[in-house]
Amino acid sequence: MEKRIAINADDYAKILKGREAKGSSFTELSPYDIPKVIGVEMKDGRLHVHFEYVDNEPESSVVLESGVRVKLGKHSGKMLSLEVDKDDNSFRDLAEKVAKALSHFRHNAKKFNQKANYDLTDAVFEKNREPLLVKG
Fold first, then answer.
1. CA separation, residue 55 to residues 10, 28, 32, 33 (Å)
2. What is the full DSSP assignment across 85-110?
3. pTM of the model
4. Which of 19, 25, 43, 78 has the most CB atoms in a 10 Å sphere around its CB?
5. In angstroms, rounded to a whole number, what is the distance separating the alpha carbons of residues 125 and 99?
6. 37-92 pLDDT per residue, tens
7. Which residues make beta-bridge pairs with 71?
C-alpha cells in the first residue's frame, strides 16, 4: 500500500528556513522543480520513493553503484523517483540508501536548479521518512 504525503507551502517555508540557514538557497527554484507530493511504496521486493510535480516530464534512468535505481527529469534533471531492493535490509537501511543517493546527486549537480531540487527532495524525504516508512 502506498503512503503519500502532500507538501504544502507551510512545509516548504519550514524546510527552506532551516536549509537556507545552512547555506542552501531555493529562492530561484521554479514551481516545476518543487515536488507537491512524496510517495513511498513497497512493491515487488523494492522500496519505491517518488516525487510528484505539477508537470509530467519524460524521464531518464540511472543506476548507482549501490544498486539504487534513480529516475530523473529528462530535460530538467529533477529527482522523480528512487528504487531500492528490499533484500534483507531493514527500513532504516533502505532509508539510508535513499538518503545517500540523494546526497550523491546533490553534491554532483552542475546546474543550480538541479542542486536546489536535490537539496529540497532530500529535505522533504528526511522530514517525512519516519511517517512514510513506518509499517501500518
1. 21, 18, 7, 9
2. E-TT--HHHHHHHHHHHHHHHHHH--
3. 0.84
4. 78
5. 8
6. 999 998 888 889 999 999 999 999 999 988 899 999 999 999 999 999 887 778 78
7. 61, 81
